[in-house]
Amino acid sequence: MSVAEIGENALLFFPVTPFDEHGALDLPAFRAHLAAGLAHSPGGVFVGCGTGEFFALGLDEYERLVATATEVVGGAVPVVSGLGYGAALAAEFLARAQRAGADAALLFPPPGVVGGQVGLLAHYSQVAVSSPLPLIIYHRDQVELATETVAELLKLDTIVGLKDGRGNLERIQRIRLSGGDRWAYFNGMPTAELSQAAFAGLGVSSYSSAVFAFLPEVAVAFHRSVQANDRERRDLLLREFYLPFADLRDQGSGYAVSLIKAGLRIRGRQVGSVRPPLTEPSAGHTQRLAELISHGLDLVGAPR
């Protein structure tokens, strides 16, 4: 299976990484979480990425997590695993991902490092040539690729896609036009539903959905409204659920991850807490999230 099989107009599942009461990896809970998400037919499963707290995982934990995902998914959709850090450690994670059966990997920017476009090209090239496993580059935070850098990266067969977390639409248009059909493109903005209409206008129709991880009924309803060009329903969901959720997400550092786990716990999933340095939402914010979940389910006519 390949990244190309994700296809266009795909809603992408980014599962959390469950931990038990002692903070250890909880693979039975992870299996249940994956199965629940797969029941709603995502276009791909991106495991151990930002929502999955990749940067809090050890190498052995990471390999076990990816291996469990490939086993549970069973080839139904592509499994893409996250990786990052410097090139040497990223290559080691990449080797683990390949051994665990991942179909591709999502390469995060090197954290806290700004080396310019020449340095980025060398970094991504070094990781890409270390393994035959296909790579999707994730540019976000302090990293944004120039079109000249993209032109060089297009020469590397193992780099097959770009996930954008910057939201510079002109830059994305330039990159997409220079890359043509050679790469797959994904909207990776926080709460990507808020920007998906703009990305779709550029031909980027697939996107990651953190909401899918804990509220797939709403995420799927929104995705269907986009596919059907039902602007009335799309805007209703944006006004009544996604904008308030994004406002809540912005109330705390790390809430883009910890709110997802809190949402799963509200819905009865035992996924544990986040690992430091992330922290849990406050009691008031957790209550607000519970209210949003109930309202979102009412909006789409799903049982609570």
Secondary structure elements and their pairing?
Elements: E1 11-13, H1 27-38, E2 44-47, H2 59-73, E3 79-83, H3 87-99, E4 104-107, H4 116-128, E5 135-139, H5 147-153, E6 159-164, H6 169-179, E7 184-187, H7 196-201, E8 206-209, H8 210-214, H9 216-227, H10 231-249, H11 255-266, H12 283-300
Parallel strand pairs: 1-2, 1-8, 2-3, 3-4, 4-5, 5-6, 6-7, 7-8
Helix pairs in contact: 1-2, 2-3, 3-4, 4-5, 9-10, 10-12, 11-12
Order of helices and strands: EHEHEHEHEHEHEHEHHHHH
**Alpha-carbon distance between the two ends:** 35 Å
The side-by-side strand order for the widest beta sheet comes to 1-2-3-4-5-6-7-8
Secondary structure: number of strands: 8
Q: What is the residue-mean pLDDT, rounded to a whole number?
A: 94
The level of helicity is: 40-55%
Oligomeric category: single chain
Number of helices: 12
The structural class is: alpha/beta
How much of the residues is beta strand, in percent? 5-15%
Radius of gyration: 18 Å
Question: Can you summarize the main beta sheet?
Answer: 8 strands, parallel, barrel
Low-confidence stretches: none
What characteristic shape results from the CA principal axes?
globular
